[in-house]
Specification:
Layout: E1 5-7, H1 17-23, E2 32-34, H2 42-47, H3 53-64, H4 70-80, E3 86-89, E4 94-98, H5 108-121, E5 129-134, H6 138-147, E6 153-160, H7 166-173, E7 179-185, H8 188-200, E8 209-211, H9 217-220, H10 222-234, E9 242-247, H11 252-262, E10 267-274, H12 279-286, H13 311-317, E11 321-322, E12 328-330, H14 334-340, E13 341-345, H15 348-362, H16 368-383, E14 391-396, H17 404-411, H18 419-422, E15 432-435, H19 438-448
Parallel strand pairs: 4-14, 5-6, 5-8, 6-7, 7-15, 9-10, 9-14, 10-13
Antiparallel strand pairs: 1-2, 3-4, 11-12
Helix pairs in contact: 3-4, 3-10, 5-6, 6-7, 10-11, 15-16
The chain binds pyridoxal-5'-phosphate.
Length: 450
Amino acid sequence: MSISFHSTNYRAPKTDFFTAVLTGQAPDRGLYMPERIPLIDKAAFQKFSGAEYFEAAFSVLRLFLDGISDEALLAKCKKAYSFMPRLEKASGKKHLLWLDTGPTASFKDFAAQMMSPLMGHKLKEGEKLFILTATSGDTGSAIANAFHNIPNIEIIILFPINEVTPNQRKQMTTLGGNVKTIAVSGKFDDCQAMVKEAFADERLQKLRLSSANSINIARLIPQSVYFIWAYAQLVKDTGEDVIFSIPSGNFGDMMGAVLAWKMGLPVKKLIVATNANDEFPAFMKSGKYAKIEPSRMCISNAMNVGHPSNLTRLIDVFGGRMDEKGSLLKAPDMEKMRAFIHAVPVSDENTRKCIFDTYKKESIVLEPHGAVAWYALEEFLKEHEEENETLCISLETANPAKFPEEINKILGISPVVPESLSKLDKLKEDYIKMDANYDDFYKYLETAGR
Ligand SMILES: *Cc1c(COP(=O)(O)O)cnc(C)c1O
């Protein structure tokens, strides 16, 4: 039975998967969510343990998508996932799920590599699609890499000039071709606001604009796969519970876990670990939501988000309503949410301490994002001794070599550099600079569309 998609603002018509993918944000500025979430049966879960990653991806996506044949979908999954996540055991029942194995060494590759063929799938001959993306670091490079040289698609990436590392910047600005990059004198939230404004701008209706941010449903669904896959690798009996700890910024990753849970994965607790941008942990405590403006700069820079776009989806799942500005129109079931989600902020100081301690105790080199989740997990286990026998999986969302300065300061060593990063220094950068001003961005798009 086919699944339709509704907007979290409920003022746009329901639509099918591929229309939702090409639209990005719904016309009423809400985000698309599946009307119902399909269940994966037990037998399928068990099959995943011996399966290749792309086969697991196919099985999960198949449940949500219409309008594409089995053969075509399987071929796209196979092409997208020439890499797979890596599980590492630590002390007790704790594990790390390394999602840094893709072409740009961040977890965003898992979504971006799958989204690009899905977006290309329904594009007609001669149709041109503009993809606008605001990035706080890793999205831009993952998107740029996934869409580079895909015909009929032009990628425009906005990043905050002072909030990305040189390596992150080079991963976006050295591709050229259909990948255009704009360095904005502002914060991530400014970039995001410019992109959102463009989507809502009537004058730009003549251009076909779409988004590759985590607001796109084609990024969200693939992000549920690695939770299911990781669980299946570690557990023989599907009765066993699991706790996930997730370093969170814009909440795309954690929504992947929520989908997996809704599909039947026995997630006992979801630890949502933020950096000092603690608007969500504060909301969980008080029931009152206030975004943080401007967002706070932290060493886990891909998580410097003062208002997570995907929060509206989480609220939707728990029966509430939040509009695109972050106003809570209807409270979600806070009790249910608190029973399932443990939300905590982690300071930069504790993030550094965690990188240091984990290296000493476990001989594992974490990077700042993964360390936020790891710290939150360890604190949670200290407070809940009864959970020390529960399977725990903490996500590592980037390769430590993306943050060599920080790692070196803390550990006095240089992380091993993967090939995808080492080649960057030889390439030429190309980007333009822009103020955090929508009019300038509008003019740019106007010209690009001619
Ligand atoms: C984007 C990113 C995150 C945050 O993921 P969200 O889906 O935005 O919550 C965490 N770690 C790294 C390395 C990232 O690039």
